[in-house]
Specification:
With about 550 residues, the chain is of the alpha/beta class. The chain is built from 21 helices and 18 strands. The N and C termini lie far apart (about 70 Å).
């Protein structure tokens, strides 16, 4: 047998991959071109970092984002130059607004070209600069850009970084492995509490926590639960913080979006404490809640939307230990809080005009049968019952695009998450969202991932149709038409079944749950109650 020597790995690509491994990155996603990212793929194989081919560049970035949220370590993706770089922008913007640290590597024309070539040429640094914390081009012998990229990847607030990698930059001894990432979070011991913060809590008797994306680490969640239990204080969570306080926890007070459904409970409070609450998570409408609000987080939050009276920059566990000793006795009745939460959920049980399956019933049935599974949720009208009614027990148990609220998120996010630990995962998506990333069904099939995709098939861009109805406009430009997802999924190698009734849905979930690999359930839902349901939730 003729032995084929392994190709030499460029020093630069090897260094990048080793630094990713050192940072805790679990995989490299992407759609390769013919330039420098071929070296990255080869270096990844040499260093046991899996490379996962996705069907789209956006899917690669979203999968990397999901891995980042599940592991609390940076994700990574790569693209070719020009169209690949332009295509990945949606996923990178999603990571930027959801505060997810991912490294994005793009091919580019050779350094030696000096602007000679215009074919496929874009100003990629300018393209990524507004949606990343750092965007730079690598050059031979200059390690500053590489060092700064990994420094930015480790600093707060979290977010993506971009490195443009010309194919002729191979690396020199100027590219050694960098130092261990610095600890950029606040110190373990809480700094002195700000006077305005202390004055606010001194007067409070009914404190309500509003927990956001900045407090999702396991140690944060444990500290928040201990604090709420010890002080008998309720806590609301944002979409991104679902599971920090589990839905079935006695201190759980519902989901906070800056909408209508949480208002009755919020107005019974005399002080809101936003714990890791980032305004990017909230519905973009004026803040009209009566109680004052203060903020506790690892990094400063903008105050243009949420009127934080004071912000305490401190690690959550240390700060909550201080607060536990200084707060007055809570006047909340947690049983009454739980009753209010139950009434709010019941209010979303809006009937449809006919006898078809409602989106909320699909969620309830699936959540009951698949409660132990991680769930990813796409943007769209089905998102409202999914985020409110699917109970989550741990941080990152539900993944969703919130800051950008992009469609086409659920499936690639499920792929990234399932590749971490092969934990069974449910992707809840509308038909419009799945159309934007249907190629990733091939990725799930190729990787034999335990992902059950449930498609809310209503043949429409329903959320847009609701907005047209609210303005008394015709439903123009929102009809998707009939898509046989069942047949499409089977043609791509997935087990698949369609359901039109609750009995068929139950049977479909039982069949799909027994599959060793990916599956898809095509559920036909009645969309006629979406407008009324949105009114209950958002107002």
């Amino acid at each position: 047998m003729i032995s084929v020597p392994r190709p030499a790995v460029s020093a630069l690509a090897d260094t990048i991959v080793r630094r990713l491994r050192q940072a805790g990155t679990r995989a490299l996603f992407g759609v390769p071109g013919g330039g420098g990212n071929l070296d990255l793929i080869e270096a990844a194989a040499t260093n046991d970092l899996p490379f996962v081919l996705t069907s789209t560049e956006t899917g690669a970035a979203i999968a990397a984002l999901a891995q980042s949220e599940v592991t609390d370590r940076p994700g990574a993706c790569l693209t070719t130059l020009g169209p690949g770089a332009a295509s990945v922008v949606n996923g990178v913007a999603c990571a930027f607004l959801d505060r997810a640290p991912i490294a994005v590597f793009t091919d580019s024309n050779p350094v030696g070209a000096n602007g000679t070539y215009t074919h496929q040429h874009l100003d990629q640094l300018a393209l990524f600069r507004p949606i990343t914390k750092w965007s730079a081009r690598l050059e031979n012998g200059n390690r500053a850009a590489l060092d700064e990229a990994f420094r930015q990847l480790a600093t707060l607030p979290p977010g993506p970084v971009h490195l443009d990698c010309p194919g002729d930059v191979k690396g020199t001894p100027g590219f050694p492995l960098g130092p261990r990432r610095p600890d950029t979070a606040p110190p373990e011991e809480a700094p002195e509490i700000p006077e305005a913060f202390e004055a606010a809590i001194a007067k409070a008797r009914k404190v309500l926590l509003v927990v956001g994306l900045g407090a999702r680490r396991a140690e944060d969640a444990a500290a928040i639960r201990r604090f709420c239990e010890a002080r008998q204080i309720p806590a609301m969570v944002t979409y991104k913080a679902k599971g920090v306080v589990p839905d079935r926890h006695p201190c759980f007070a519902g989901v906070f979006t800056n909408g209508a459904i949480e208002r009755a409970l919020v107005e019974k409070s005399d002080l809101l404490i936003g714990v890791g609450l980032d305004p990017v998570e909230l519905v973009p409408r004026p803040w009209t809640f009566t109680p004052p609000i203060v903020g506790l987080s690892d990094w400063p939050m903008p105050t243009g939307h949420v009127p934080f009276g004071s912000q305490w920059i401190a690690r959550t566990p240390a700060a909550l230990r201080v607060l536990a000793d200084r707060l007055k006795k809570s006047e909340w009745n947690l049983d009454k809080v739980a009753t209010t939460v139950s009434k709010n959920l019941a209010a979303t049980d809006v009937p449809v005009d006919g006898d078809g399956l409602t989106a909320q019933r699909v969620v309830d049935v699936a959540a009951t049968m698949l409660s132990e599974r991680r769930v990813t949720v796409d943007a769209g009208a089905h998102m409202f019952p999914a985020t409110l009614r699917w109970p989550i027990a741990e941080p990152a148990g539900l993944l969703i695009s919130n800051g950008l609220s992009t469609m086409g998120f659920a499936l690639p996010a499920a792929i990234g998450a399932a590749l971490v630990d092969r934990k069974p995962t449910v992707a809840l998506t509308g038909d419009g969202g799945l159309l934007m990333c249907a190629g990733e069904l091939v990725t799930a099939a190729r990787e034999r991932l335990p992902i059950m995709t449930i498609v809310f098939n209503d043949a429409s861009l329903s959320l847009i149709e609701i907005k047209q109805q609210a303005r008394h406009l015709r439903p123009a430009g929102v009809a998707i038409g009939a898509v046989n997802w069942h047949a499409l999924a089977e043609s791509l190698g997935l087990a698949s079944v369609a359901a039109r009734t609750e009995e068929e849905l139950t049977q479909a979930i039982e069949l799909a749950a027994a599959v060793d690999g990916p599956s898809l359930i095509d559920v036909y839902v009645d969309r006629s109650n979406y407008g009324a349901m949105l009114k209950v939730i958002r107002g």
